[in-house]
Design goal:
By secondary structure, this protein is mainly alpha-helical. Helix content is about 70%, strand content about 5%. It is built from six helices and two strands. It has a two-stranded antiparallel sheet with strand order 1-2.
Length: about 200
């Protein structure tokens, strides 16, 4: 197994670790991780731990693609596993944040629905011998989601000190771009979807 594929698998393995760290019932075991105060904003230490794991996972997302392209290590497994690893990482974090009320449920629902529809479009496309490549909008969507998650985990610091709701803006912007890119995928394969209605 080559290095890019190992990085992809490592990213997948980090998702259950994120879930364990984020959802662990610390208070039931008498564990108080505390918080850090930045001006009038308090930042739970658990957020920083989750952020560190998420940042490492996100870094592997950037590295595996660069290494694979630079060293001609692109494999069928990599093409299959890389987008799955990305969606597992980002969508799991969005769900965790939504469950704790840290992000609105509606944009998270829209982004998850978009991913489901895109997967269906790709399946229809492959059955018809059509390759639907990931477009720039899809890549921008992922970048926006990752930055939104980072700023939500940071309780919108440093922007919260200036009453600028950057994390909320990023979540809704990621949702908008997600919907646009989803429609782009759908438009490329709609003739195959509706051909036998």
């Amino acid at each position: 197994m080559n290095l890019p594929n190992k990085l992809t698998i490592f990213r997948i393995v980090l998702v259950p670790l994120l879930a364990l760290v984020w959802l662990f019932p610390y208070q039931q075991f008498g564990i108080n991780l505390g918080e850090i105060n930045a001006g009038s904003v308090s930042l739970p230490v658990i957020n920083l731990i989750v952020l560190a794991i998420f940042a490492i996972a996100s870094l592997t997302d950037m590295l595996d693609g660069k290494i694979a392209r630079k060293n001609n290590l692109i494999t069928t497994f990599g093409k299959f596993a890389d987008p799955i690893a990305d969606k597992l990482l980002v969508n799991s974090m969005l769900l965790f944040l939504a469950c704790k009320g840290m992000v609105p449920v509606v944009p998270v629902f829209i982004m998850l629905a978009r991913d489901t529809i895109v997967d269906g479009c790709r399946m229809i496309a492959s059955q018809n011998g059509v390759v639907v490549a990931a477009g720039m909008m899809g890549k921008l969507k992922t970048v926006l989601q990752m930055f939104a998650i980072i700023f939500v985990l940071l309780n919108n610091l440093p922007f919260e000190l200036y009453d600028l709701p950057v994390s909320t803006i990023l979540i809704w912007l990621a949702c908008f771009v997600s919907a646009l890119s989803g429609y782009s995928y759908f438009a490329q394969v709609k003739e195959y979807i509706f051909e036998s209605m």
